[in-house]
């Protein structure tokens, strides 16, 4: 008997991707669109949101709102639900970052990244929850290695992402009885992203970063998207509260590996 592919279940599903107007999150949105999903992407910049939706095709919607603004975010979620119906897959990936030592950062600079990454994620999943279809829906947050690896010049991102991962695991417990799975993805160094252009801006730092990955290279947008499809699909029906590294082993490197052993 012919088996249907587990990802064929995404055909006409409503996938809402906060932060989906660029980078890793746009890569994830593309993968769901290719599976026939109706994809809503949300970002701060209206032009980028419109361009992303145009690229994703006729079943896509571009929405502009800041995840730090619950009212604007709530209105955007309502627009998406009006267009595509209840949400099957809710993804929270909006993030902000810059390199700065703690002593070179104002209190507001630290707060800004916590506001976007941690509080913004709470806003997306809290306000998105009421629009989920229900049992079988999947919630995915996009974290970073900084959540578990203390990283110089990244105290704001380390603190925010660590909080985000604990929020994700806690909601997996709170929402489990509703049949809603909540997981986090942790992309390591991924090529062709704004994040890596900022964190490793030149050839030398790119080479050095790649050398810290046990697999010896940056990952691709598609490799992260594959993990997002898996975690949101029936193949992962018993997986909730997981924090999944998609990083070529980067977060397992350890001191000896980093010294070139
Ligand atoms: N070093 C130190 N402080 C910095 C900084 C840096 N490189 N960049 C921003 N800040 C400070 C600002 O000075 C400000 O603090 P102040 O009010 O005390 O002066 C605070 O952070 C907020 O900055 P602002 O630019 O007003 O905030 P914003 O909400 O418009 O944007 C970011 C914040 C993080 C999104 C912004 O840095 C940005 O646009 N980043 C590029 C996009 C990005 O980060 N993508 C994700 C990659 S993972």
From TrEMBL:
Gene3D superfamilies associated with the record: NAD(P)-binding Rossmann-like Domain
Superkingdom of origin: Bacteria
InterPro entries (UniProt xref): DECR2-like, NAD(P)-bd_dom_sf, SDR_fam
Keywords associated with the record: NADP, Oxidoreductase
Transmembrane segments: none
Protein name as it appears in the record: SDR family oxidoreductase
């Amino acid at each position: 008997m012919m088996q249907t592919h587990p990802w064929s279940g995404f055909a006409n599903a409503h996938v809402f991707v906060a932060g989906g107007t660029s980078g890793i999150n746009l890569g994830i949105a593309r993968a769901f669109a290719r599976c026939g999903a109706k994809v809503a992407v949300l970002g701060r910049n209206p032009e980028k949101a419109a361009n992303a939706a145009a690229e994703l095709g006729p079943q896509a919607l571009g929405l502009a709102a800041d995840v730090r603004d619950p009212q604007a975010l709530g209105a955007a979620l309502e627009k998406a639900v009006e267009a595509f119906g209840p949400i099957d897959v809710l993804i929270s990936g909006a993030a902000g970052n810059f390199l700065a030592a703690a002593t070179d950062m104002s209190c507001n600079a630290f707060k800004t990244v916590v506001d976007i990454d941690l509080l913004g994620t709470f806003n997306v999943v809290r306000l998105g929850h009421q629009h989920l279809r229900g049992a079988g829906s999947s919630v995915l947050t996009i974290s970073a290695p900084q959540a578990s690896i203390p990283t110089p010049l990244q105290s704001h991102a380390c603190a925010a992402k660590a909080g985000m991962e604990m929020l994700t695991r806690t909601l997996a417990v709170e929402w489990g009885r509703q049949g809603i799975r909540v997981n986090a993805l942790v992309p390591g160094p991924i090529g062709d992203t704004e994040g890596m252009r900022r964190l490793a801006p030149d050839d030398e730092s790119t080479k050095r970063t790649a050398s810290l990955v046990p697999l010896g290279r940056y990952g691709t947008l598609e490799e992260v998207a594959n993990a997002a499809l898996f975690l949101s699909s029936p193949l992962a029906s018993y997986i909730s509260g997981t924090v999944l590294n998609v990083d070529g082993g980067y977060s397992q490197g350890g001191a000896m590996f980093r010294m070139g052993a």
